[in-house]
Amino acid sequence: MARREPVYEVVQVLAKGILGAQGVRVDYRGLENIPAEGGVLLAVNHTSYVDFLEAGLAARRAGRWPRYMLKAELKKIRVMAFLIKHCGAIGVDREHGAESYHEAVTALEAGEAVIVYPEATISRSFELKEFKSGAARMSIEADVPIVPLIVWGTQRIWSKGTQRRAGRHRFPVVVQAGPAIRPDGDDPAALTARLRTAMGEALKSAQRGFPAPAGEDWVPARLGGGAPPPDEALRLEQEEFALRKAKREAKQAAKRRSDEA
């Protein structure tokens, strides 16, 4: 499927414009690891609300028009529904993901690049969380490589638990692509483990020499920052999910009562 739709091209220009307006200085590394053609999964770490911009632009620099795997709930927002449709994004329903999974596999088999977030949600610790097995299973089924893609520094701009820093700031960001990983007969668990190890190595490479001011909310605790360590971040995430679930169930109960009245 051709990805050069007019809307997609406009979105790419807007993304560049946003980064330019903020003065974000992006250092792209290892993009030669992204194959110029053929199906490929780009596995991205998830540390902020805006890391998708740099991930997509990295793919474009490598000559690809990537398809994102995004939360299906975004389709409820009219503007996002329009962009998802015209940019070929794949909506992911976290409770019923079979349809989106098969759509992604079909795209990979057709030679497309698909961006996936193995952690599924933002890491509050800014360390790698446990990975879901979806990326590995898609790689195995479509027989395509996975390229680890680390975006580092965007959590300083806007993330969970950090101060939102809008406006022009000239913050540095590193995008590090690691060597492609082939399925090579692995089962999903083994390939997921290999992917996480590779992304861990790419993350450390991206962090090497990167500013890490002591106590700052966007710097991992491991590097002397003020972000919560992984165990605390997990607790905060579980509390957030529990609260969301309670609100959702209360809303559903209220609707049932209204329907019965």
TrEMBL record:
Residues 40-154 form the Phospholipid/glycerol acyltransferase domain. It comes from the Bacteria. The keyword GTP-binding does not apply. SMART domains: PlsC. Coiled coil: none annotated. Keywords: Acyltransferase, Transferase. GO terms for cellular component: plasma membrane. One of its GO terms (biological process) is phosphatidic acid biosynthetic process. InterPro entries: Plipid/glycerol_acylTrfase. Residues 208-233 are annotated as: Disordered. Transmembrane segments: none annotated. One of its GO terms (molecular function) is 1-acylglycerol-3-phosphate O-acyltransferase activity. This is 1-acyl-sn-glycerol-3-phosphate acyltransferases. It comes from Tsukamurella pulmonis.
